[in-house]
Write a structure and sequence with these properties.
single chain; alpha/beta; 6-stranded parallel sheet; two-stranded antiparallel sheet; 13 helices; 12% strand; globular; disordered N terminus
Length: 301
């Protein structure tokens, strides 16, 4: 499970002091990844405490999908992202503390869910979006599964290739909604019920690009030794060239760069690409304090 990957990093964060910042900061909204919940004390619970400490006791909302922790955990696997985003949009609109704007941090698939929220739900306004290992061009591989060298993993992957774009899979399995098969690009665009839409690959929704460009910053963090996200370049909005699964197409050469308004964000210096050593969601305290906290430290206007 993904939460196991972050335990060591987060325990370090919990037991070390940190430098305080001054002034009233924007609230922070966090969205957990697959296999995690809003409030496990050893994962997002510790991140919440760190952010409160570093950002002058600012309000931090760790999103819980549903009425309890079990439902929240299961949401990462079985509740369609579109339903989750609609739910979160309504919850944020009801929160008076967020009405003037907020910053957001998404962990793993929570990164692309928050991006979809920014595109579909512009009120209250999201200011800075930080995607920690989010898969913005999808995945084509299995967790901890080197598909090019493991016969077993390759067999399972072939099964998923066959079923991912079936209606039942798209409706019932969260990971199928961002499964991106570069060998079947037409099937992906035709049947993806989430990722192809938010990436403006089905048709161009001008509001998606407009709303995304309202962000002050869109920060993408890539984990250089990632063994879960395949390809890891998806964390920087890059993916395989269509028709094969070895060569990566640079972001600036992809259609999504213009279709989603990323080119304009790049021109306006709103795109930030960060990288850190470690496997998926593994980072140390020093790196987090030096690279992430400053992005959240702007004072409210």
């Amino acid at each position: 499970m993904l939460w196991k990957a972050v335990i060591s990093s987060l325990l370090i964060i919990l037991f070390y002091g940190a430098t305080q910042t001054n002034g009233e900061k924007y609230p922070v909204v966090m969205w957990h990844g697959m296999g995690d919940t809003c409030c496990f004390p050893f994962s997002l619970g510790s991140i919440k405490k760190l952010l409160e400490q570093e950002l002058n006791q600012t309000y931090v909302k760790s999103l819980r999908i549903g009425n309890n922790m079990i439902m929240d955990y299961e949401s990462g696997f079985f509740i369609h992202p579109n339903k989750q985003i609609d739910y979160v949009c309504q919850e944020l609109a009801k929160d008076e503390k967020l009405k003037d704007g907020y910053n957001a941090i998404g962990f793993s698939q929570g990164g692309q869910f928050l991006r979809a929220l920014a595109q579909r739900c512009p009120l209250p306004p999201m200011k800075v979006l930080i995607s920690m290992g989010g898969q913005h061009q999808g995945v084509f591989g299995l967790p901890k599964c080197p598909s090019l060298s493991s016969k077993t993993c390759e067999y399972i992957r072939r099964i998923l290739n066959t079923a991912a774009y079936e209606e039942w899979a798209q409706m019932d399995l969260v990971q199928a909604t961002y499964w991106h098969n570069p060998l079947k690009e037409r099937d992906y665009i035709a049947h993806s019920t989430f990722l192809a839409d938010i990436n403006n690959e089905v048709f161009t929704n001008g509001l998606y690009a407009e709303h995304l460009n309202r962000l002050d910053k869109f920060v993408m963090v890539k984990f250089l030794n990632d063994t879960i996200v395949q390809p890891k370049e998806s964390q920087w909005f890059e993916f395989y060239k269509p028709g094969q699964d070895k060569e990566i197409l640079p972001l600036k050469e992809s259609k999504v760069y213009e279709q989603l308004g990323l080119k304009q964000m790049d021109i306006n210096q709103k795109l930030v690409f960060l990288a850190t050593e470690g496997d998926h969601l593994q980072f140390d305290r020093k790196w987090f304090l030096e690279n992430i906290i400053p992005l959240l430290s702007q004072e409210r206007k």
